Predict the structure of rhomboid protease.
Amino acid sequence: MGILSQARVTRMLKAAPINIENIRAIVCTASADNACAMDFVKNYVPLLAHGNAHVDIKTQQNTSSSHDSCSVKLIKLVVNRRSPINPLSLLPIGKKPKDVKNNRRITNDPTLKNNPVYGRLAFCISMTAMLFIVFIAELVFNKLTFNGRCLSNVLYPQVKPSNATGPYMVEVGYGACEYNLQTDARKIFFVGTATDDKGWPRSMVQDFRNVGSRGYIDGPNGRIFEHIGGLNTNKIRTYNEHFRLFWSIFLHGSWKHLIMNILGQLQSLWIIEPARFQYF
């Protein structure tokens, strides 16, 4: 074979996938023809791998010849994980511009040509989106049910018939809630301390058992979790609503609770999913 030129070695490397067998074959061919080509391969491979691969090539002296020749003594290819151990390390906070550029270069690889891991974080992204949607649904439920009081175990007085012979109108929707709770719907909020209430009006409830419920600055009124969650275990036992045990896993009492769970989920799935779920 003739002497390998740098252009020829470049074409060989670009045509072959980056794996240890192809690198071994190309480097051995280069070392058998020209020591300069061998040095070129040694310097070129780490650049081709965009920082994800490390090739350790050692040379030895050929004692049977009058000149030194390069041969492969040891080739070791180490492919780092696609995702860093800490996902927050990708944020350009307290980093030099050079470090940020290198991180973007390594992770900006949608086809994963330089990494054998094929995870796309589909489960992590979908679970995170679902938890946010469920929390928003909690706030909407809190608003539409007047902090959970329109959907309750409180029995309101029945309408007593009068001497009037004509029909009477029964309010539905907000009208019934406003009348029974003596509250304006415009004063009901999604989240925050404004969701505080003192329970049901004393004048509207027979056999008075008034139970107020507190609203916190970072979440809806806690009463709603008796209706859509598992806070009231009597409903699980009495009505056999065992789905509440599972559904409650996705509910959060406040946005602080939600953010903490999301960060923990991102930290774990960022590490586990790319290495385990290879078909997403």
